[in-house]
Specification:
- This protein is an alpha/beta fold.
Length: 527
């Protein structure tokens, strides 16, 4: 049972968030996000529909091998279809077979949807809800019931909407989540309706799931907590259908820092890091104006503000930015950031001798970020940068030169990519070539082919993901690009980054970091 000061956080960015326009997570992206949310202590992560598409089927298959420490992974679906039993419903059977212990299903609360979308009787819909929850409860450790369109349903037919959630409770639902699926319900109505629901269902069993079509999802969620709701659903950065979902990055800080609830503990300091990770994997530019985690959230430019903030930070800051992993920015002199480097270095197991080391690293990072580098989804590059600043990096090879050819011989034939490379390792030259399905893939193949005779441990490395973002779009084809590469060796995954006006050079920088990071880790394990 949830205690009065504990809030359950349920993230649905892998399912609801992926329905956001321009967001398209790969299976590897979803696994990275799942692990990151587990590390910071998110209670539930909704993985997707296990039987609805090949990507989610593969995700649940791979996720079954992931050992989560804190997070419960849930499989999502709907109540059974009309005319068949719950035991024979393909969706419910896929949830049971997904390999997870927790299920989340949604059902209809609005009589309009029952009649016009499902085209069944109101009583039959109650049977669908009860049967589906009861079936899943027999096979799963926990069942979360999302009452879709609950607030619109309540306003249209109060008694029926209440009967739908009572059917879910009678079926054995562990949590009953009230959803504002269209996002149009005002905060005062959310509050009023929850007070009524509490007369029927223990508020500790209630959850809230709000969409942001009226720009009130965060405020309404916090209001729901003041009325006793203890299960909060939303997404990192507010990604979701149409205008998005309630933004957990704007909900978690006030819950923990202003309302005194137990949420993430010390891991709240990683909130900006997680926010940027999800942005990078979604291949979308971070929203600098987001509260708490945006780059501008604690930026000061006006002369009066800057003068006051230097004397006392509380004059123009509602919290210490370091509490959420952010940093103060004085736009005319760009101060701060040292605490973040000290924290990250400690997390990476890198010892800094004194504050001067951190200041020097901050300066380097700022200079590189000004050129377009971002390290939130490229921690391997960040670790190499910090080690290099401390003179702890080893140079495993020297590039003599490379050439990449991308050739298309006939209009109806695919392009042919070939890379030739010459390297020096411990005074020995190695000259080799390799083909690839593109110039970067060819360069990656040639690089590893040249190095494998010297470092056989590289044979297991694979390039898992490759993303390119234009970071100075006003210059057209002369713009700089940021390349983010995700690599893996079957056990671990790591991200590296490169920036250049030349996409091949940016890719080379990221590829070299990937190789050096793996060799550095291998060397440390042998020492």
């Amino acid at each position: 049972m949830v205690t009065s000061k504990k809030i359950e956080i349920y993230d649905t960015v892998l399912r609801d968030g992926s329905q956001s326009e321009r967001v398209n997570f790969s299976v590897e992206d979803k696994l990275i996000i799942l692990n990151a949310l587990d590390e910071i202590g998110i209670d539930y992560v909704e993985g997707g529909w296990p039987g609805s598409n090949p990507r989610d089927i593969e995700f649940f298959k791979k996720a079954s091998t992931v050992k989560l420490k804190r997070t419960h992974l849930t499989a999502f679906g709907s109540t059974r279809k009309k005319g068949i039993t719950a035991a024979n419903d393909p969706n419910l059977r896929a949830i049971v077979a997904s390999g997870v212990d927790y299920a989340t299903i949604f059902g209809k609360s609005w009589d309009l949807h029952v009649r016009d979308a499902l085209r069944i009787s109101l009583d039959e819909n109650l049977e669908l809800i009860f049967d589906s929850v009861k079936f899943l409860k027999r096979h799963m450790n926990g069942v979360i019931y999302d009452a879709e369109h609950f607030f619109d349903g309540y306003k249209n037919n109060k008694d029926y909407a209440l009967n739908t959630i009572l059917a879910a409770e009678q079926g054995g639902a562990d949590r009953i989540v009230l959803a504002d699926t269209n996002g149009g319900t005002m905060p005062w109505d959310i509050e009023r309706i929850i007070e009524d629901v509490k007369t029927l269902i223990n508020p500790g069993k209630l959850g809230i799931h709000l969409h942001n079509d009226s720009e009130t999802a965060v405020a309404s969620t916090l209001l729901a907590v003041t009325r006793g709701v203890r299960h909060i659903q939303g997404t990192i950065n507010g990604y979701g259908e149409r205008c998005g979902n309630a933004n957990l990055c704007s909900i978690i800080p006030p819950l923990q820092l202003k309302m005194g609830f137990t949420v993430l503990g010390e891991n709240i300091r990683r909130l900006k890091e997680i926010s940027r990770l999800v942005d990078e994997l979604a291949n979308l530019p971070p929203n600098q104006y987001l509260p708490y985690v945006g780059d501008s959230a604690f930026a000061h430019k006006a002369g009066v503000h800057v003068d006051a903030i230097v004397k006392n930070t509380k004059t123009y800051e509602h919290i210490n930015p370091a509490l959420v992993g952010n940093s103060r920015r004085i736009l005319v002199s760009d101060l701060s950031g040292k605490a973040n480097v000290l924290m990250k270095s400690k997390e990476l197991g890198i010892k800094l001798y004194d504050a001067a080391d951190a200041s020097r690293i901050v300066k380097t990072i700022k200079e590189l970020e000004n050129k377009g580098y971002q390290y939130e989804a490229a921690e391997a590059s960040l670790e190499l940068l910090i080690n290099k600043s401390m003179n702890r990096n080893r140079k495993f090879f020297r590039l003599v030169g490379f050439r990449v050819i991308d050739e298309k011989r006939k209009e109806d034939e695919p392009t042919i990519a070939e890379a030739t490379i010459m390297l020096e390792v411990d005074g020995k030259l190695e000259h080799t070539a390799a083909m690839g399905n593109g110039p970067v893939n060819a360069l990656d193949n040639a690089l590893r082919k040249a190095l494998e005779k010297f470092y056989p441990e590289l044979r297991n490395i694979k390039l898992l993901d490759f993303k390119v973002r234009v970071i100075s779009s006003g210059k057209g084809t002369d713009a700089s690009v940021r390349v983010l590469i995700e690599s893996g060796d079957g056990t671990n995954r790591w991200g590296t980054v490169g920036v250049s006006q030349n996409i091949i050079e940016a890719s080379w920088i990221a590829l070299v970091d990937s190789i050096n990071y793996r060799l550095l880790k291998y060397k440390k394990s042998k020492d």
